[in-house]
Design a protein that fits this description.
The chain has about 70 residues and is mainly α. Helices cover about 55% and strands about 10% of the residues.
């Protein structure tokens, strides 16, 4: 059975907390709307552009694997 999009989770909240950043701060630095980052953070995103992922990693000083995790359903 192929993986579903909702099996991939974006762990943006913990990274923001570790860095003392708000979603508003991150949106301004990445050049993505706060609404779109909120969709990512809350697990409602269906996709993410590589350019957005690259910008997030650059600003948060992390690797893609720090942001994205695969969690299969129980």
């Amino acid at each position: 059975m192929p993986a579903e999009a909702n099996d991939i989770h974006v762990d943006l909240g913990p990274l923001l907390a570790e860095r003392g950043m708000t979603l508003t701060d991150l949106a301004a630095q990445v050049g993505v709307t706060q609404v779109n980052l909120s969709i990512l953070k809350n697990g409602r995103a269906k996709a993410i552009r590589f350019s957005t992922l690259t910008s997030l990693c650059k600003v948060l000083q992390c690797q893609p694997g720090d942001l994205l995790t695969y969690r299969p359903p129980d």
